[in-house]
Amino acid sequence: MSTKFEVPADKLSWCCDVSLLPFACTAEMTPLEDFIGQERAMRAIQFGLGVDKPGFNIFVTGLTGTGKTSIIKSFLKKVTAERVAADGDSLFPADWCYVYNFSDPDRPQALKIRRGWGKTLKADMEQLVQNLQREAKKMFESDEFAHHRQTMIEELQKKQQEMMEGLMEEASRNGLTLRMAPSGMVLLPTKDGKPMQEADYLALSTADKKKLEEKRGEIEEKVEATLREGKKLEREITEKLATVETQAGEYLVKTP
To answer: Using CB atoms within 10 A as the burial measure, which of 32, 44, 160, 192 is most buried?
Structure first.
């Protein structure tokens, strides 16, 4: 057997000669302040931090576990210390919190608050939301609120019914009946209180047909106007219900 490429057992592993190290414990070493192999990323971050204008941000991406967060935190600490030394600002900056902007949801509002209060604000807001959800459910599902809502809906239905009953009476006086069809409301000629058969309609004189069609045209216009008014009432009721719900929500928010 050839032993040309045989490796001795004592060469299969490497042992560090601790006598060559200039320290007895790593705690004696000065921490490395720079980042090896991240020169391009550091230049980009430094450039981004130098853009002190609204709307500019730094977006960091990369594989999980590559130390992105550690590098950014360390770099920001270094930059913060340098700016404090240069400008004399506080070493501990204030907290910045983004809150919802009800006037423009796409542009959240930024709040500058005392250092350390950001987490407190977040916790308080989460608790507030939970309380509001609980109290809102109790309010909107209460018998009083349901009764108030039902009363408004019944008022709308009563007005719509009164308008339609007036049209039905007018149609009946003129030999017509108002019926609901898949295509909408239709007016049909009547005979003895029932919809007229085609043969009966054809047997009418030309003058009677003309008179009947004229009345049908007049009442159809009133039906269309009544339906438009009904839609308007529905919108008004919907707006009133929304206003009532908003007022109830504002009351909950303002209640200590």
So the answer is: 160
Instruction: Give the pLDDT band of residue 104 (cuts 50, 70, 90).
Output: very high
Helix 39-50 with 68-87: angle, nearest 10 deg: 50
Which long-range contacts does 74-77 make (Cβ < 8 Å, 24+ apart)?
A: 74/33, 74/35, 75/35, 75/42, 75/45, 75/46, 76/49
Q: Is residue 174 located within the same domain as residue 222?
A: yes
Q: Give yes or no for a contact between 145 and 129, defined as CB atoms under 8 angstroms apart.
A: no
- Domain housing 223: 142-254
Residues 182-219: tens digit of each pLDDT: 767 777 888 877 887 878 778 888 888 888 888 888 88
Whether 246 and 149 map to the same domain: the answer is yes
